[in-house]
Write a structure and sequence with these properties.
About 35% of the residues lie in helices and about 15% in strands. It has about 150 residues and is an alpha+beta fold. The strands form two sheets. A two-stranded antiparallel sheet has the order 1-2.
């Protein structure tokens, strides 16, 4: 018996589908290997987008980089409340040099305003010196800016 080959269609091997839904099959593929590959790429793409989004929403400067503006990198407001960035000011030293608070951004700064004939102001100086020495010994780069005022009587 001879069979006519023109009437015969080649039988396709029917693969077992991973998903019953045509949409999921189209997204993830028909085999486990395709599924794993596509899931890895999707997770990598979502992770890259998350990293980019976090970087755009929370820009930071490298440690030790001086800030060129009054606004801090943490975007805290300039003001007088706890957590605010201190407003900038410039003072003249005894030898005529200009010193600005902004020169010390990123370092802990203690501001001390005192009066030359104030007994309490003079009493606190040794305690500040001890505090400064303890901070330096602990490796902290503390800066103390002191401004004294004296009245000139005629």
């Amino acid at each position: 018996m001879a069979h006519a080959s023109s009437n015969r269609r080649p039988q396709r091997r029917r693969q077992k589908r991973l998903f019953q839904s045509n949409t999921l099959t189209a997204l993830f593929g028909r085999s486990v290997g395709t599924l794993v590959t596509r899931v890895v790429f999707i997770v990598a793409a979502i992770g890259a987008l998350a990293i980019i989004t976090v970087g755009l929403l929370r820009p930071t400067t490298a440690p030790g980089t001086p800030s060129s503006t009054l606004q801090s990198s943490s975007s805290a407001p300039v003001g007088f409340q706890v957590g605010d960035v201190a407003p900038n000011f410039t003072l003249t030293t005894l030898d005529g040099k200009q010193v600005s608070l902004s020169n010390f951004r990123g370092k802990p700064v203690m501001l001390n305003f005192w009066y030359t004939t104030c007994p309490g102001c003079l009493e606190e100086i040794p305690g500040m010196q001890q505090f400064y020495a303890s901070q330096r010994a602990a490796g902290k780069n503390l800066v103390i800016l002191g401004s004294s005022s004296c009245s000139k009587r005629a």
